[in-house]
Write a structure and sequence with these properties.
Blueprint (H helix, E strand, L loop, with lengths): L1 H19 L28 H11 L2 E6 L2 E6 L2 H10 L12 H6 L11 H16 L5 H20 L4 E2 L4 H14 L9 H17 L2 H8 L11 H24 L8 H12 L8 H32 L1 H15 L14 H14 L8 E2 L4 E3 L2 E3 L4 E4 L1 H5 L42 H18 E4 L11 E2 L5 E2 L4 E5 L6
Parallel strand pairs: 2-7
Antiparallel strand pairs: 1-2, 3-11, 4-7, 5-6, 8-11, 9-10
Helix pairs in contact: 6-7, 6-16, 7-12, 8-10, 10-12, 12-14, 12-16
Family: Belongs to the cytochrome P450 family.
Keywords: Heme, Iron, Membrane, Metal-binding, Monooxygenase, Oxidoreductase, Signal
GO molecular function: heme binding; iron ion binding; oxidoreductase activity, acting on paired donors, with incorporation or reduction of molecular oxygen, reduced flavin or flavoprotein as one donor, and incorporation of one atom of oxygen
Length: about 500
């Protein structure tokens, strides 16, 4: 009797699953899901990018798959991406709910907040404050150049030797955004700074990794002490650190005279009082964590990619250095405005961002209403996966889609051009908040260091491995680089 009941229950669950996973009429095609797991067993969860490419070749640039019993639509290629994120931007500007990353952030901050008045209010404030504290201005240049001096000190100590840059650029990028958010910086050997970098690195790899997929697909696993609990523990550590910094600011701030982002937010909170808005101290903590992570991880991984390719493509490095020397001449320091006279350096930096493919699947979107995409019907609330990697490598869009070659960003006259397929920061209203800061950091760091040093692949370095380690952000595998002082040095 008991066995019959169990079989009946299993049969009922399978029928329920099959009913729930029937693709709606005119929904994008895709592989057939299996009970419980959906299409997860058809993907390499350590890095699904190759599998997604093959599925796009089979089913088209817009196809569907199931994460457990949940349907998702994968968008590939520049044409479909532009229609979704630009032409129909508001309709695709939502965030999916009920994923691990939602639970980690409690749906607060700005990155994972769903589209609506709450998100608009917080994003508008963030953009205003980032501009007020120098984004795109000379004051931000000074912050960045000040931090670069610490990188220079490290590299000078290692001149004639090799060094592992794995955390060097993470520390610098973290300090630059910390100076804006908290008005503080940490020495590069500070234990707490090392802890921040470790937590950010671990969580970025876990957020799109196998255990995240298990959490999202199999809700009944969530209560078990499995490896995804580490991401929650890391978040608690960062929340406590950030809340402590906010409490210190509460004690030392002078209302109306903000020193940094935290003071400005607290001023705004005080001004609004209990007006029912989205501003609160709890929201501030998550907001800061979003900005700190975004301002650290993407820039540092871009720099790691840059030096991996510059050390293994000495011809590109030398051409950049010649252009830098000519343009800067006797100037003490580079300025962000100098980029307009450095087309090849600009092309190299953009090519680095293209091959770095730092956020390959963007941050997942969701539809805010019933809509269409490339002729298919997409219901409201559907999880959308923008495959930015497919755009950055699309063969019809690039002269050299599978090689590192700055010529991808130069026209026949040697002038810098930016193809429409260049979307490393995504596109539309959910585009990365810190794009302007990231571009300024990449330019100033690379120009300043290439002016002073030559970077070489070590003789014992073996064959360079350009394979990226997958996660919500991708990073090169660890490597070492040789440091040599150049004959022409400034600053």
């Amino acid at each position: 009797m008991l066995g019959s009941l169990i079989l009946l229950w299993i049969s009922f669950c399978l029928l329920l699953f099959l009913f729930r996973t029937q693709r709606p009429k005119n929904f994008p095609p895709g592989p057939r899901p299996v009970p419980v797991f959906g299409n997860l067993l058809q993907l390499n969860l350590k890095n699904p990018l190759d599998d997604l490419k093959k599925l796009a070749e089979r089913y088209g640039k817009v196809f569907s798959l199931y994460i457990g019993s949940r349907p998702a639509v994968v968008v590939s290629g520049v044409q479909a991406m532009k229609e979704a994120l630009v032409t129909r931007s508001v309709e695709f500007a939502g965030r999916p709910q009920g994923l691990m990353i939602n639970d980690i952030t409690n749906n607060k901050g700005v990155v994972m907040v769903n589209y609506g008045s709450y998100w608009k209010e917080q994003r508008r404030f963030a953009l205003m404050m980032l501009r007020n504290f120098g984004m795109g201005k000379q004051s931000m240049e000074e912050r960045i150049l000040g931090e670069i001096s610490h990188i220079i000190s490290h590299l000078e100590k290692n001149a004639g030797k090799t060094t592992d840059p794995q955390t060097l650029f993470h520390k610098a990028a973290s300090n630059i955004i910390c100076s804006v958010l908290f008005g503080t910086r940490y020495e590069h050997d500070d234990e707490f700074l090392k802890l921040i970098i470790r937590i950010f690195t671990e969580n970025s790899k876990m957020a799109n990794g196998p255990w995240s997929m298990a959490y999202d697909s199999l809700p009944w696993l969530r209560g078990f002490p499995l490896p995804f609990r580490k991401a929650f523990q890391n978040m608690e550590t960062m929340k406590k650190f950030t809340a402590d910094l906010v409490a210190q600011h509460q004690k030392t701030r002078i209302p109306g005279d903000p020193r940094d982002f935290v003071d400005s937010y607290l001023d705004e909170l005080e001004k609004r009082g209990d007006d029912g808005s989205s501003f609160s101290e709890r929201q501030l903590v998550y907001f800061l964590l979003d900005l700190h992570f975004a301002g650290t991880d993407t820039t540092s991984n871009g720099l790691l990619t840059a030096f991996l390719y510059l050390t293994t493509h000495p011809d590109v490095q030398e051409r950049c250095q010649r252009e830098i020397d000519v343009v800067l001449g006797e100037k003490e320091q580079a300025s962000y405005e100098d980029r307009h006279r450095m087309p090849y350096v600009q092309a190299m930096i953009h090519e680095v961002q293209r091959v770095a493919d730092t956020v390959p699947l963007s941050v997942f979107h969701a539809t805010t209403k019933d809509t269409q995409l490339m002729g298919y019907d997409i219901p409201k609330g559907t999880l959308i996966i923008p495959n930015l990697s497919s755009v950055l490598n699309e063969e019809s869009q690039w002269k050299f889609p599978h090689d590192f070659n700055p010529e991808n960003f130069l026209n026949q006259q040697g002038e810098f051009v930016k193809p429409e397929a260049f979307m490393p920061f995504s596109a539309g209203p959910r585009m990365c908040l810190g794009e302007g800061l990231a571009r300024m950091e990449l330019f100033l760091v690379l120009v300043t260091l290439l002016r002073r040093f030559q970077f070489v692949w070590p003789e014992d370095g073996g064959v360079p491995d350009y394979t990226l380690v997958f996660g919500i952000t991708q990073t090169p595998k660890p490597y070492r680089m040789g440091i040599r002082l150049r004959g022409t040095q400034r600053g």
